[in-house]
Amino acid sequence: MSLLKIGIVGVGGIAVSRHIPALLQLADEVEIIGVYDVNIARAKEVSSQFRITHVFHTMEELFQQADAVVICTPNKFHAEIAIAALEAGCHVLSEKPMAMTSKECMEMITAAKKAQKHLSVAYHYRFMKEAQAAKKIMMAKEIGKPMVVRVQALRRRKVPGWGVFTNKELQGGGSLIDYGCHLLDLSLWLIGNPKATEVTGTTYNALSKTPDQVNEWGQFSHENFEVDDHVTAYLRFENGATMLVEVSWSANIEQDQETVSISGDEGGLNVFPLKVNYAKHGMLFTSKADWIPPVSDPGFEQAKNFVNVCLNREEPIVKWEEALQVSEIIESIYKSNDERKGIQL
Ligand SMILES: NC(=O)c1ccc[n+]([C@@H]2O[C@H](COP(=O)([O-])OP(=O)(O)OC[C@H]3O[C@@H](n4cnc5c(N)ncnc54)[C@H](O)[C@@H]3O)[C@@H](O)[C@H]2O)c1
Fold first, then answer.
1. pLDDT value at position 208?
2. Helices 320-339 and 181-190 meet at what angle, rounded to 10?
3. 126 close to ligand 1 (CB < 6 Angstrom)
4. Ligand 1 atom closest to Cα of 78?
5. pTM surpassing 0.90?
6. Is the CB of 6 under 6 A from ligand 1?
7. Domain extent listing, the chain
8. Superfamily per CATH, domain 4-121
9. How far away, in angstroms, is 75 Cα from ligand 1 center?
10. Which of 32, 115, 131, 206 is such that its CA lies 20 to 30 A from the CA of 299?
11. Any atom of ligand 1 within 6 Å of the Cβ of 19
12. Which atom of ligand 1 is nearest to the CA of 42?
């Protein structure tokens, strides 16, 4: 069987730490045919580091030779590169978020439908062992109907001090679009992606604006810090469920906290660590998993799913309409903050 030819566009941090190593582990089925980056020196460095033979000088050349493309550029370029790749006949895995706006996401979906190619988004939290186990519990309806969801993606003083993460023009936002998107995506997926009907949010750009920052993840310019560093939101869904969302890169809290907690009408579920809460025989129980089937590496599982999707062996774990919903909600939280009112969807 011939190998699936994959090209990588944008070879910065996430390409070298996650996508390229994962795809190299799938060498029986995949060939990384080459890389493209606007920074040619960087592309050459990465190709020699991973012994990838080709450095493309244009994206179009890469698209002509590839069956599939992984996009790892800043958020601003996800849509235009994905659409060009799809139109050239390639399947696409885009880094998260799907794009900067819901309009761009919809244009990507239209291009994928027209080209009859696969399009997925790298929401790798879904591939964590706790997430996979939680999905099984939710699918089995063990907690009944999900009603109230608490989502926290909180880091204490960890603004990324590298790349373009604090640049609004290139990223579209800060802690919410960059980090919160993972936990939001995971929570929505676990409750079955019901339609959101109303979103209210407040974003802050304050904690990272003060001089003499204490920051664990490197240095950044507080003067040029353009994006949200703390966000709260309240979401209503068509099926009656509600979601409380709290995200930060730089919260003044004791320790980092990732929470997905779902209260259902028959029980409750916490994902990190995995626990189920329920009432039975007049008593209250909390059961925790003593062993969860291990996942070697969520990045590897994500790459494997994408390759299997391209080879028509599996359905994508992250469907495009679900990634679109995450972007719609993020956009609405930003809009709600700007307009100081709830946004009806
Ligand atoms: N899934 C995750 O947990 C995770 C983690 C980090 C980053 N990301 C996402 O990955 C993407 C890249 O982040 P990163 O940390 O690797 O950033 P980075 O700055 O380290 O790398 C980005 C690379 O893209 C290149 N580039 C910029 N514009 C380009 C263009 N138009 N065409 C081709 N190449 C271009 C840059 O030269 C750079 O080498 C972002 O969308 C980010 O949100 C995801």
1. 87
2. 120
3. no
4. 41
5. yes
6. no
7. 4-121, 126-297+326-344
8. NAD(P)-binding Rossmann-like Domain (3.40.50.720)
9. 7
10. 115
11. no
12. 39
Q: Tens of pLDDT along 1-53?
A: 689 999 999 999 999 999 999 999 999 999 999 999 999 999 999 999 999 98
| 4-121 and 126-297+326-344: identical CATH topology | no
State the pLDDT at residue 296: 84
Going from the C-alpha of 18 to that of each of 39, 54, 59, 235, 298, the distances in angstroms are 19, 19, 21, 32, 9
Quick one: which atom of ligand 1 is closest to the CA of 177? 43
Ligand 1 neighbour 181 (Cβ under 6 A): no
Give residue 81 CA to ligand 1 midpoint distance, Å: 12
Q: Which atom of ligand 1 is nearest to the CA of 15?
A: 16
Classify domain 126-297+326-344 by CATH number.
3.30.360.10
Segment 62-98, tens digit of pLDDT: 999 999 999 999 999 999 999 999 999 999 999 999 9
CA quadruple 123, 127, 130, 133: dihedral, nearest 10: 120
Q: Are 309 and 301 in contact (CB under 8 A)?
A: no
The C-alpha torsion from 234 through 239 and 240 to 246, rounded to 10°, is -20
